[in-house]
Design a protein that fits this description.
Layout: E1 3-7, H1 13-22, E2 26-30, E3 41-44, H2 49-58, H3 62-70, E4 75-78, H4 80-85, E5 86-89, E6 99-104, E7 115-121, E8 125-132, E9 137-141, E10 146-151, E11 154-160, E12 163-166, H5 177-186
Parallel strand pairs: 1-2, 1-3, 3-4, 4-12, 5-6
Antiparallel strand pairs: 6-9, 7-8, 10-11, 11-12
The structure holds glutamine.
Glutamine binds near residues 48, 49, 79, 83 and 134.
EC number: 4.3.3.6, 3.5.1.2
Pathway: Cofactor biosynthesis; pyridoxal 5'-phosphate biosynthesis
Protein name: Pyridoxal 5'-phosphate synthase subunit PdxT
Length: about 190
């Protein structure tokens, strides 16, 4: 059974845990350094990236997660999690700075402007529901980064080797296909 950590400092943690369990994985809540031992992959959930960054510093998790990413541990960042992974942030300093993408925050307006679309992702499946909540988008990708999905000309899902990042919240729907792609094809 694959053991997948979910960074559990803030944000949509429980939904990821439930989806991982539905996929037959063991979900491990990551709050302290030692929780990072013996995991096969790590999910950085959506929430609020500025708050998460403060908590990463307080719990001394920034460097250990950065090291694991550099050593090749598969990671999936959704929404705020994508912001944490990005090498470059428009108008801001990066956080983990491990994924070769440039991300712009709050690209789709405010919380009240949240919306859901169905997106076709050739590598994963068609009509996959995607929930956007004060979502970022990927403005540019580096060499060797694969663009997996776009919406209205903006990149919303990309893969940089063992690192996957999306603008939206796949865990807030009942559709497990994107998470399954992560745990089966990347982890
Ligand atoms: N706008 C949030 C941020 O900058 C991300 C929103 C989300 O994760 N739903 O962190």
């Amino acid at each position: 059974m694959k053991r997948i950590g979910v960074l559990a400092l803030q944000g949509a943690v429980r939904e990821h845990v439930q989806m991982l369990e539905a996929l037959g994985c063991e979900a491990v809540l990551v709050k302290h350094r030692q929780d990072l031992m013996k995991i096969d992959g790590l999910i950085l959930p959506g929430g609020e990236s500025t708050t998460m960054r403060k908590l990463l510093d307080r719990f001394e998790l920034l460097e250990p997660i950065q090291n694991l990413a550099q050593q090749g541990l598969p990671m999936f960042g959704t929404c705020a999690g994508l912001i944490l992974l990005a090498n470059n942030l428009v108008g801001d300093k990066p956080h983990l700075a491990v994924m070769n993408v440039t991300v712009a925050r709050n690209s789709y307006g405010r919380q009240v402007d949240s919306f859901e679309i169905k997106v076709d992702i050739p590598k994963i499946g068609n009509a996959i529901p995607a929930v956007f909540i004060r979502a970022p988008h990927i403005e540019a990708v580096g060499q060797d980064v694969e663009v997996l999905a776009q919406h209205e000309g903006r990149i919303i899902l990309a893969q940089d080797g063992h690192l996957l990042g999306c603008s939206f919240h796949p865990e807030l729907t009942a559709d497990t296909r994107i998470l399954e792609y992560f745990v089966v094809s990347i982890v």
